[in-house]
Amino acid sequence: MRSxxxxxxxxxxxxxxxxxEVKAVPDIVDADTIWAGTKxxxxxxxxxxxxxxxxxxxxxxxxDCGIExxxxxxxxxxxxxxxxxxxxxxxxxxxxxxxxVAGEDISRWLVRNGWALAFRKYSMAxxxxxxxxxxxKLGLWSGTFIxxxxxxxxxxxxEILGSSSIPVHAQQALLPVVAEPPxxxxxxxxxxxxxxxxxxxxxxxxxxxxLSMDRISDxxxxxxxxxxxxxxxxxxxx
Length: 238
What we know:
The protein contains seven helices and 17 strands. The protein is of the alpha+beta class. It folds into two domains: 12-176, CATH 2.40.50.90; 177-238. Helix 3 (106-112) runs parallel beside helix 4.
């Protein structure tokens, strides 16, 4: 019995995120991931579009919805202090947490305004807020898009979402690889399957031009080193 208790105490001692609170004006790297000081925090219960993700607007034209979702969050919380309750670590060693600004639940704000989805796989807390955004055609729901969890592994069978009818060209527009950076400021290349780890390459790096971005499942564009490292990637050593 004593040994079992000792093991539990030992495990708790190696879980620095358990029950901790952090306060900071964060660096927002995408719409569901921030740096709060030295801690990478992934907002729990939601999933927001990646910064290299594209969507279709109400007229069927592509737009950089991932960058827009990030920018909307930055604008909404500019220079404000976030208070985050941390609850554990995810597979990428990011702290999972719920964050508030002046008492407002940031995850709820994102989902209710259509800039993120309720991550039902892990929580049902924001489903009603998602229904509100869908009903009022807000954010992503103003047009057509792929759920962020599907975007990262999209294929010809991937479901296309929208608040109204899906354009006939939606799959043709949304499924292909993003071979070019979504903006000039988002030119860092991520190789998510390099020897079972994620490695990012910055412009000018030795292997930057050699890394092809024409693969859907294991390539990502990042807008900053902070974003790449928040996603669990390390910089190429050469």
